[in-house]
Write a structure and sequence with these properties.
Helix 4 packs across helix 5 and helix 8 crosses helix 19. The protein has three domains: 176 residues, Arc Repressor Mutant, subunit A, CATH 1.10.10; 76 residues, Endonuclease Iii, domain 2 (Orthogonal Bundle), CATH 1.10.1670; 110 residues, Endonuclease III, domain 1 (Orthogonal Bundle). By secondary structure, it is mainly alpha-helical. It is elongated and about 80 Å long. Strand 1 and strand 2 form a beta hairpin. About 2% of the residues have low confidence. Strands 1-2-3 form a three-stranded antiparallel sheet, sandwiched between helices. Strands 4-5 form a two-stranded parallel sheet. The longest helix has 19 residues.
Length: 387
């Protein structure tokens, strides 16, 4: 760290404050009613410390906090905290609280028991009420007995606490579950059998649809993997992606924008990324950081074409890549990747045509398959399995 200072930064819940000393971050504060009130709080809390540009380690911490509050997975474990002035009991409470995963909660009593002080629930609550490291020490994940919210000293009180929990729990429940689709595959297949006699023969030959979601902790993580895998065989792509992940040996969970933006070009290129993929990955990370890429929660409110329009603005991301995201990451039921060779070849096999169908021909026939064109595409891919 450089000399002590503080800075304000914008997040999805308002403008937060962060202060640092020579040994690490010494304070993170949630928004007051106005940015000027947040600044006054920082000046009172840290007398003699001036507002300044965040040095690189602090900026990386800011990036991770912003990412978390956008509803995406972000590893805050790597943020170094200066606890020199923190009482020993409070430090134990804070260290245990940092271990609570995003989207999960513990009670004050459970925290007390886990630090070896059963019966000290009230003392745990008092320690968390004085938590100087909001978000990084996620005191919003600690509830009163019976799942009641309990107290929260930040501006906005319980509403701020519940808002932060909703952000985390929405991300977790939507995309970190068991990979189940939001529609019934058997019903979709039967609808297709009824709507198209030729497709029915393919469905009967293949059997039940086994389409499965590949869960993802964030839109960034899914698209970053897609970028690395483009135009490479699976084994080679997996090797390169593993090397990229290995650049961050202490990190847990999925790749994050902050990690990519904190790595040098030499490091990322040295992991095996081509120049075009390096530039695409950087562009994706920058767009995620500035909020132009929708979060997991936000993307659920967008229709398929709006998602395609937004995500294809990223360098190196085309329509087909987003269609695969819609089908296999987001579980959208009515996606037809008309430019996919496998879909077109499968159509030719299933429908007995001498030539691959044109885009217009495929789209015309696919009108019968609505609202389950994703499932129809899966069956067309199966038609090519024996080739």
């Amino acid at each position: 760290m450089t000399s002590p200072g503080f800075a304000l930064f914008d997040t999805a819940i308002g403008r937060c404050g962060i202060a640092w000393a020579t040994n690490g971050i010494c304070g993170v504060h949630l928004p007051e009613a106005t940015p000027s009130a947040t600044r006054r709080r920082m000046l009172v809390r840290y007398p003699g410390v001036s507002e300044s540009a965040a040095p690189p380690p602090v900026q990386r911490a800011i990036d991770r906090i912003v990412t978390l509050l956008r509803g995406e997975t972000s590893d805050l474990d790597q943020i170094a905290l200066d606890m020199d002035l923190v009482p020993a009991f409070h430090r134990r409470v804070y260290e245990l609280t940092r271990q609570i995963p995003a989207g999960s909660t513990l009670s004050y009593g459970e925290v007390a028991s886990r630090i070896g002080s059963p019966g000290a629930a009230r003392a745990v609550g008092q320690a968390l009420g004085k938590n100087p490291f909001a978000i990084v020490v996620p005191c919003h994940r600690v509830l009163a007995a019976g799942g009641k919210p309990g107290g929260f000293s930040a501006n906005g009180g319980l509403e701020t606490k519940l808002k932060m929990l909703r952000i985390e729990q929405a991300q977790r429940s939507l995309f970190d579950g068991d990979g189940k689709l939001g529609f019934d595959l058997a019903e979709a297949a039967e609808t297709l059998r009824t709507a198209d006699a030729k497709l029915r023969r393919l469905i009967d030959r293949v059997g039940p649809c086994r389409l499965q979601l590949k869960t993802t902790p964030s839109i960034f993580a899914a698209l970053a993997e897609s970028i690395v895998y483009q135009q490479l065989h699976g084994k080679a792509a997996a090797t390169i992606f593993a090397r990229v992940r290995a650049l961050f040996p202490r990190a847990r969970g999925a790749l994050t924008p902050a990690q990519v933006l904190g790595a040098s070009e030499d490091e990322l290129r040295g992991a095996g990324l081509s120049n075009s993929k390096y530039l695409a990955l950087r562009d994706l990370a920058e767009r995620c950081r500035d909020g132009t890429i929708p979060t997991l929660a936000q993307i659920q409110k967008l229709d398929d074409e709006a998602i395609i329009e937004r995500l294809t603005e990223v360098r190196g991301i085309g329509r087909w890549t987003v269609e695969m995201l819609l089908m296999f990451r987001l579980g959208r039921p009515d996606v037809l990747p008309v430019d996919d060779f496998g879909v077109r070849k499968g159509f030719s096999i299933a429908f007995g045509t001498a030539e691959l169908p044109s885009k217009a021909e495929l789209e015309a026939r696919a009108k019968r398959w609505r609202p389950y064109r994703t499932v129809a595409s899966w069956y067309l891919w199966r038609a090519t399995d024996s080739l």
